[in-house]
Amino acid sequence: MSDPAGLVLSVRGEARRMVAPDYAEVALTIAASRGSKAEAARAAAAGLDALTAGLAALGGVALDAATGSGPLTWSAQSMMTYAERAHDLDTGKYQPTGQLAAEVAVVVAVRDFDLLDALAAVLAAGEAIAVQGVSWHVDWDNPAWPLVRADAVQAAIRKGRDYAAALGGTLRSVEHIADAGLLGGGGNSQVGFTGGRVLARAASLGAGEPDAPSLDPVPQELAAVIEARLTADGVSLTMR
Question: Has residue 223 been placed in a domain?
Fold first, then answer.
């Protein structure tokens, strides 16, 4: 038995590509403890000034709407103050030291990877700097995106050909292509990218720190998922 109107096939196509990252973000904190909240805040602010001076020497600028795609930018996210506590070996608990601490959260973004070694040196020079983690990212307009999306379309067509051939027919046409979930399948839309992320406990980038995060670029995986509706001719359910 065959269907002269053709058989409609609904398939999903997936593709992945590894690409070099476009930029890195270094999340760090600058902390200082003093006898009063005001003194701690001034010390943390001085540490931030020293950091930004070092970044400026590398051509770094503060992040704003005009500098977002610059080779090296920084942004101070927030400052918090709290009562400092230290581990008491006798009680096993963290007890107040009587000092007040101030902590500034900063994100440094670097697009010129030739600056990575110099950036590591600037961060290592700051005694109050604790690097929380390094993440690597791919821009939304990276040239690899059209390629991985095209790969996903071709994967869907190959799957459709396989289904049609299994029923003794051939693929005739592509009726509809959409991002995953837009054809009413209810599946997860997974068009996006995932990438390596290097995290570390609060630690300086100085020599001898075993848990300092690496500033070596980590390749990123782009993953595209599409759904397609195809038609096939010559499909037969007759047993052969």
Answer: yes
